[in-house]
Model the fold of this input.
Amino acid sequence: MLLACRDARRAQTACERICDASGNRRVEPLELDLGDLNSVARCAQTVLARDLPLHVLINNAGIAGARGLSVSGYEIAFGINHIGHFALTQWLLPRLRASAPARIVTVASRAHHMARGIPFADLQRRTHSWLTVQEYAVSKLANILFSHELSRRLGGTGIQTYSLHPGVVATEIWRHAPKFLVALRKRSMMDAEQGAETSLFCASSPEVQGQSGLYYDACKPREPSALAQDRALAARLWEFSERAIQSFNPHG
Done:
C-alpha cells in the first residue's frame, strides 16, 4: 500500500497507525503535492520505479475554501482537486493497465450540483468568488466528468472507474474555509472513518464490478447532475487537461 501526502512526516505517522491497526507492514509514504505538477510527476515516477502491480488508485485529496492559484498556475481548487488527480491518473495508467483488473476511485462531491458549467477562460486565474463555493463546485463537477470519460476511454481494458460523494466530513479539507462556517457545519459532519466508507466500497466491493463510470453516494449509485453527464463537456475538459499536463509528462 502506498500513501501519498503533502507532508512527509504526517504521512509516515499515518502509515505507522495503519500498520498498527491492520498488521500490514507494507505501507509506504510518498510525498505528493497535487497543486505542483512537478511533484505529481516525481510521485508517479517513484511509483512506477517500484515495479509493483497497481490494482487500486484512490484519488482522495482535496481542498475547499482556499483562494489563489496552485503552484502550477491553475485556480487552486481546480488545480488540486482536478488537474493534479488527472495528471497522476494519466501517468499511472500504464501500470494500472498492466495490473488489470484494476479500479480508479475519484472522490467528488454532491456540491457538483451547484456548478453552472466549467469556465474554461477562468481556470488559470485566481479564485474569484468570496466563499469559493462556485470554484469548489466546478472542481467536483470536473472529477465526475473525468471519471465518466475515463471509463469510456478504458472500455475493455479491465479497469473500472468510480466517482462518489463521501458525505460532509470533518477533515482538514476545511482548513482554509471561514471558521464561522466550519463551526456551524461541524455538528452535522461525519468523522473521517465514516467518510471513507463509500470510497472503500467502490475500491473493493464485488457489488460494483461491471458498473464502471457510475457516481455513488452512501454506497449506492446515484444520478449526478445533467452537466456531469454531458459528453461534449467531458471531452472538452479532457482536451484542456491533457494540454495542461503535457509538458510535465514523466514518461518523456
Notes: DSSP finds eight helices and seven strands in the chain. The chain has a mean pLDDT of 89. The beta strands are 2-5, 28-31, 56-59, 102-107, 159-165, 214-217, 220-222. The first helix runs from residue 8 to 22.
